[in-house]
Each structure stands twice: as C-alpha cells, then as structure tokens.
C-alpha cells in the first residue's frame, strides 16, 4: 500500500501500487498496450485514449494522454474538440470519427453493446488487422482507466520516463 498525499479530499489515501504489488500483471498490461499500438498512427492512439478517459472520468489518464498528444504535435483545437467530436466532425478524419465512435460504444458497452452500424463504420475505415489493434487499444485504455481510478492515481503525477 502507498499513501497518496495528493488524493482529493474525502478519498481514501492509502491504495495499492499495482506495479509494485503485482509486477507481472503490470508488465502484461504494458505489453498489451504496446502491442495494441503497433501499426496505428500516434495521433489516432492518443485520440482513442483521450476519448475513453473522458467517458470514464479518468483525470489521471486524460492528463497523461493530452500531454502525450501535444508532445506528438497534436493541435490544441483538436484536443479541445475530442469530447464533442460529433458536433465538430470537421476537425477529424472519417477514420478518426469511426475510431471515436467505436471507442464510445466499447467503453459504454453496458449501455447497449456495440451497434452494428458503429462496427461497420469502423470496419470500412480499417483493415482487419488495424481494426483488431484499434479494438485492443480501446480495451487497454479502459483497463488503464480502471487501474488509475481504483488506485486513486492523481492527475499530473505521471512518472513515466
């Protein structure tokens, strides 16, 4: 267990550090994350991770991935529009829109599954291998969001090298 001095008021401040407490599990998640990204454009990777983090209310991952997107050259305009991409479609390619729609459906899967039209839109934009990687990335960021939220990770405290 670790003490999180930066935890918001009213939250438990002692939570486990998954990397330290279950290093094999943590390394497996890192491996899945790396494999999922293979062959995908860095901007697309970050857009997917940002949108899932919005939907999951994961400030830790949202902070991390918006910073990563900026470092990769993503524009502030596009970053501001991810949460409202349907109303700002002109900021995103058809391929990115398909990935964002799939991200929303998979992230919110309990609210109605993944509709056939959303899946078909993604399948029309990505070949089978790319689609498998997009889906894997969506699954991975949802896992990371749940890790960060359940262990009370604090936005702005990312210590990756």
What does this structure look like?
- The chain is mainly alpha-helical and 161 residues long.
- It has eight helices and two strands; from the N terminus they run E-E-H-H-H-H-H-H-H-H.
- A two-stranded antiparallel ribbon has the order 1-2.
- Helix 3 packs antiparallel against helix 4, helix 3 packs parallel to helix 6 (94-107) and helix 3 crosses helix 8 (128-150).
- The mean pLDDT is 92.
Structural class estimated from helices and strands: mainly alpha
**Overall geometric form:** globular
Q: Major sheet: size, sense and barrel closure?
A: 2 strands, antiparallel
Work out the number of β strands.
2
Report how far the terminal alpha carbons are from each other: 23 Å
Which percent range fits the helix content? 55-70%
How is the largest sheet built, in terms of strand order?
Answer: 1-2
Q: Strand share of the residues? A: under 5%
Average pLDDT score: 92
Order of helices and strands: EEHHHHHHHH
Specify the number of helices: 8
What oligomeric state do the depicted chains represent?
single chain
Q: Uncertain regions: pLDDT < 50 for 5+ in a row? A: none
